[in-house]
Amino acid sequence: MNKLFMILVFIGLPLSIIGSIFHWSAVIMFIIYCLTIIALAGFIGRATESLAIVLGPRVGGLLNATFGNAVELIISIFALKAGLIGIVLASLTGSVLGNLLLVGGLSFFVGGLKYKWQSFSIYDARHNAGMLIFAVIVAFVIPEVFTQTLNDRNTMIVSVGIAVILIVLYLAALLFKFVTHRGVYQTDNVQNESKHEEDPEWGKGKAIIILALATAAVAYVSEHLVSTFDIVGATFGWSELFIGIIIVAIVGNAAEHASAIIMAYKNKMDVAVEIAVGSTLQITMFVLPILVLLSLFFSTSMPLVFTWPELISMVTAVLLMITISNDGDSNWFEGLTLLAAYVIMGIGFYFI
Amino acid sequence: MNKLFMILVFIGLPLSIIGSIFHWSAVIMFIIYCLTIIALAGFIGRATESLAIVLGPRVGGLLNATFGNAVELIISIFALKAGLIGIVLASLTGSVLGNLLLVGGLSFFVGGLKYKWQSFSIYDARHNAGMLIFAVIVAFVIPEVFTQTLNDRNTMIVSVGIAVILIVLYLAALLFKFVTHRGVYQTDNVQNESKHEEDPEWGKGKAIIILALATAAVAYVSEHLVSTFDIVGATFGWSELFIGIIIVAIVGNAAEHASAIIMAYKNKMDVAVEIAVGSTLQITMFVLPILVLLSLFFSTSMPLVFTWPELISMVTAVLLMITISNDGDSNWFEGLTLLAAYVIMGIGFYFI
Amino acid sequence: MNKLFMILVFIGLPLSIIGSIFHWSAVIMFIIYCLTIIALAGFIGRATESLAIVLGPRVGGLLNATFGNAVELIISIFALKAGLIGIVLASLTGSVLGNLLLVGGLSFFVGGLKYKWQSFSIYDARHNAGMLIFAVIVAFVIPEVFTQTLNDRNTMIVSVGIAVILIVLYLAALLFKFVTHRGVYQTDNVQNESKHEEDPEWGKGKAIIILALATAAVAYVSEHLVSTFDIVGATFGWSELFIGIIIVAIVGNAAEHASAIIMAYKNKMDVAVEIAVGSTLQITMFVLPILVLLSLFFSTSMPLVFTWPELISMVTAVLLMITISNDGDSNWFEGLTLLAAYVIMGIGFYFI
């Protein structure tokens, strides 16, 4: 598996560059880009895992989510610059659905095939539940309902205000987790102990270098991938919304997918859940509000107003994830339920 | 009580046949049919209870839900054949509301009058909560929101896709409960032990025969009951929606009502909750999707799209039931809350 | 602090009377009224606390909520008499949001600054969660969705029916709490013991007299405060909805704010939560339905139908509060999350 990924990267990366220079067919390039990203994601997963062993499960999980979302932030800034507001909101929606339902679902399902029950910190699950409800059900629903009678200027003022509050609360959450309430989570200590027995695959320095290079390569390839979407969409009959929400979610979050599932398979559910839910929170409470504020400096500003199908999908995904995860354990059926919800939304976005 | 039921059946059944032959007044037949069904439900309850003692609480509960819903499935197929899509969706909505709020509420209330606190498996409650959210809040809400801009053909494709996923997940839930995670529920073992001390009223063979005959008789009478609805509705000023949602829910689920309340009164809350919630899950994840697929073979196909009042009623009923039941215990006030919610929805459907 | 409040009251009350006689500027009177009410609230808080020590945390909390909401009931009746239905519904919405998010948030936040974790009865939290879902998500959502196609007369019939059910369930909740299930809450007994060690500031008689006088004074000043709203609104550019929901919520609930925060700071979280959530339940299940029934005797009757922004705000506030409080403990971050939700809704109502 690791050797296959290495071969894919060392073939895929040069082909990505050569193909884009010689203008190969978009469908062929699309497949090359996707495979290369998935292979690079394997390296990111292994590097993150090595770092996670050294740094502990929570910091490792946060690291993971950051490196996964850096790619999305970069792509979104380019799209924003080009005025493609609809695609940015769609791809962020896709990231939320992909992280909660697809990454979360695959982690629970794959881990559950190996272990009868897997458990994770109930304190983290409840802490995260409050933030998910806050971000998606308060901060996204309120502007949707309130701005229906507002003009564009007031809609943007409300959006900016809510974006600032989201960022402030996100920073407060980091303060809570790493300063005022550090180490209050019993589960971690137990896990850390068992983890220190393992040896990391790579040393700290080597892991950081590989992580940085692989992330840069993923960003480079992702950007080119995006430019093939219109032709691929026309070829396969996929709408822009479907590409933004489903394809970007799967390929753009491949790094998280890979590492979350590896963690789940190794029974490190705290890390897997941290990747799925932590990444969702980072997108909703940090990446999206940053993009709303950045859009003020571009020609087209982006309000915090989703389409109704996007919003309802996120709201129902949050309610399902909270209901399933707030008992602090998981099994294959819970994973399958999340995956089934993802497929239902996929069908919906395909036909819309 | 048992004697009264026996008398009612042996008078009611012949009168049902005679009355339908000689075309007696619809209102009189309506009363005869209702009383006969309720009396038959008493037999079903006793037969199921006997079987439940022999087979254990979960299989007994499943059995119960199956025999209750077989009646609804048969009635719905006849209605579907006649193209009465609105009445089918209304009566399934009524079954969901009736099972969650009326059966669940009466069980909690009646049981709570006798016992200060009653407890049931918290693992089952949480497992069921995930499925309720999945079925009603994901699988029913998504097509409602997504198909508003779709044409009839695509609406039907989305409905069929979601119906297939619901059935697959329902079968996976049976696999989870009876194969991969059988016997993981502590509560059962404890209950089974205490239950084996009781003697069943009827032997296994006799109970099965009575169950089969009574169910067949309920199906026969129910079908004739339905044909009186238009005249009764006109006589009492009840709309078709109100009859579908309230009257069908009460009479059609009389079997579940009777046995759930008997179980609650005997402090077997695991069985009572299994009937109320398990029956809801069977209707939403099995009966309804089967009907959507079957409707493809009839002249009018039935999409998975409820009216807004129907959908909102089910969503709020699910949220209320989950909030009330996820602590694993019940009391009379929780039962009264569920009943009050049922009355509020009843008032709404009466005037709509 | 106590001396400052005493000075404020003995200067503010005479100035309130003199100013209203000599028709001073509305903006100046607005500031005098606000400060006087906040100072009076300090006395109410101290008197309630003295009584709470004598009578136990639950009765103390109920007492608190009653005295806070008596003011709102009186103001609402005057507004109803003047036909100002929109302002009554807005100010009740504001009370719900203010109690759940502002009082609850400040209690959790201020208490959390002093204590790392604070805990309260998980049984109460879950009992209250069921009632919050019932009142806001069933009893308020159903008429909103169902009455959209009804005429005014039927809308009013549905409203009256639901109002009666709300009052019946509220009385049943009192019966449950104080008669059939009195003293089932473990936490109380523990708390009561530790509380009996404290000496109340004032004796029972003195506390009752101060409570009665201060409440009467708050009612007097509040009524005059309301009459300044139109001029103050015009001066500062505040809409009627914003004044009803935000200003009335802050000043009208100042008494609850003061005592809840004092209780939280003294680590009596059971009382603080009882004030925030108990007061919300009293408004939604008692004050509002009483007003609906009373409105039948006035020229304009008030249906139980909120505007969509009002309803969605309450629904999301309830979901957030339940998610945050159902683990039975709190910290500063949970408080900040509730406050952030309040600010987001405040921004929304300001621009709407």
From TrEMBL, chains A, B, C:
Name listed for the protein in its UniProt record: Ca(2+)/H(+) antiporter
A Pfam family recorded for this sequence: Na_Ca_ex
Topological type in the membrane: Multi-pass membrane protein
Annotated compartments: Endomembrane system
Keyword list, A-Z: Antiport, Calcium, Calcium transport, Ion transport, Membrane, Transmembrane, Transmembrane helix, Transport
InterPro entries, A to Z: CaH_exchang (IPR004713), CAX-like (IPR004798), NaCa_Exmemb (IPR004837), NCX_ion-bd_dom_sf (IPR044880)
PANTHER family the UniProt entry points to: VACUOLAR CALCIUM ION TRANSPORTER
KW Ion transport (keyword) present: yes
Entry similarity comment: Belongs to the Ca(2+):cation antiporter (CaCA) (TC 2.A.19) family.
Major location category of this protein: membrane
Gene designation: cax
Transmembrane segments: 5-24, 30-55, 67-90, 96-117, 129-150, 156-176, 205-221, 241-263, 275-298, 304-324, 331-351
Role according to the record: Ca(+)/H(+) antiporter that extrudes calcium in exchange for external protons.
Domain Sodium/calcium exchanger membrane region: 26-178, 207-345
